[in-house]
Amino acid sequence: MCKKYYRFFWGFLDKQKKWLNEMSDKGFRLVDTGRAWYEFEDCEPEKYRYAVEFVGEKSKQSAEEYASFLEDCGYRVMFKNLNLDYSVGKAVIRPWADKGGRIATTPGSYNKELLIVEKENDGKDFELHTDENDIKEYKKTVHKPWIFSIAFIIILLLILLSVNFAGALGFETKSATRIGYIGHNGLSSWSGKYHLLDGTMKKSIRPKNDTLGIEIETESGQISIEIRDAEGNIIFDESNMKTGSYSVSAPDKVSVKIEAEKHKGRFEIG
User: Fold this and answer.
1) Tell me: the pLDDT tens digits for 15-32?
2) CA–CA distance from 61 to each of 102, 151, 240 (Å)?
3) Is the pLDDT of residue 189 over 80?
4) At 172, is the pLDDT very low, low, confident or very high (cuts 50, 70, 90)?
5) 214 three-class SS
6) Residue 128 CB burial class (10 angstroms; 0-12, 13-18, ≥19)
7) How far apart are CA 33 and CA 55, in angstroms?
8) How many whole angstroms separate alpha carbon 203 and alpha carbon 210?
9) In the chain, what are the domain boundaries?
10) Residue 221's beta-bridge partner residues?
11) What does CATH list as the number for 173-269?
């Protein structure tokens, strides 16, 4: 009689191996696997031993050849997924993998990152790697995806921190098209002259005095400026600004947002 158990172990290969061997000790032999399930049939308790091998660094051909080699050695082998992914036609880049295995696809080597290897119990621990150098190399292979993932997360966090740090120092952030743009970004001032400005730009400014001066030159197009104080209150808001000078009381750090629509001219704030 077959029984199905739902389990998922992520990258904890030793934990998966331990559970499979515990199931064998209870009289269950693994006969099939899915994304997050294992199917067993009744067997003599402790009749089989299991090992779980990571092959995610290999190409599809290399992994299949390795599985065939293990089968030739008398083992029973099943492929298993490392991650939960039900998509079809997916391609994943693996910079840590061997040459030929750096792009995994479905169908292909994706979701076939593990081999579950079975042998009849001979009373000895079941280890596929027994040579000291072989064990070291295998551990490096297993750790590579985690190292790359952690490095990617650290780089992403550093990028986010740098953006926030730049914003805290008052550096400009933009999502605007700028043609012929010549500008200056200071802690207490901001200016730009251009042939075309289209989109949104933001910057924090800490005025030297309690008054912030604004100068606009409009040759064509539209430009609007919104200024908020440290509490987020709007202290200046002008749309479709023409050539002219403006001033606003700003005793503390302010946030300036410029919205331009095909504007040609210049601005000076400070």
Assistant:
1) 999 999 999 999 999 999
2) 13, 29, 64
3) yes
4) low
5) strand
6) middle
7) 17
8) 18
9) 2-128, 132-169, 173-269
10) none
11) 2.60.120
